[in-house]
Design brief:
The chain is α+β, with helices and mostly antiparallel strands. It has four helices and six strands.
Length: 152
């Protein structure tokens, strides 16, 4: 596992890692795999109150997460898994609006699953994405190679 690089963006990402022992993203070769991102404020951790704001914030958190892992953001996303407690037409319209905003030049794969509850109380959406980042992977390999290995 030493060749994998794990990431947790500042504030909420780091707090979640410390509290629950999981990372927000991992580099696997030329891919970035992101843990589910909800509609929490990335600094305070407070969940957005309105569904549309929560969806918007979840998309912003995915972008923050990808960039923290050295990616360029949504332009590199090829798969989205969306877990939703609200499967209404209104919720889906907000999803589509964000897809068009964040990915105007491509249409990724989407799996949208209705669930009864998510990992944080009051959360209605969780976005999990996969991104292709060939350039970033090369930079990450070079950075890793520059760090001397620990001898035991």
């Amino acid at each position: 596992m030493s060749t994998l690089q794990y990431y947790a963006y500042p504030d909420m990402g780091v707090r979640l890692r410390e509290k629950t022992s999981y990372s927000q993203a991992v580099r696997v070769g030329d891919r970035i795999e992101c843990a589910g991102q909800g509609g929490w404020d990335a600094f305070s951790g407070e969940m957005k109150k309105e569904l549309s704001e929560e969806i918007d914030q979840a998309f912003e958190n995915v972008d923050r997460n990808l960039k923290d892992a050295g990616g360029k953001g949504w332009s590199q996303v090829f798969r989205v898994n969306s877990y939703n407690t609200d499967m209404s037409d209104e919720a889906f319209r907000h999803m589509v609006r964000n897809f068009k905003k964040w990915m105007p030049d491509h249409q990724p794969l989407l799996t949208c699953v209705g669930v009864t509850k998510l990992g944080i109380e009051g959360m209605h959406i969780e976005l999990e994405v996969s991104a292709y980042d060939e350039e970033g992977a090369e930079a990450a390999r070079k950075a890793r190679a520059a760090v001397p290995e620990k001898k035991e």
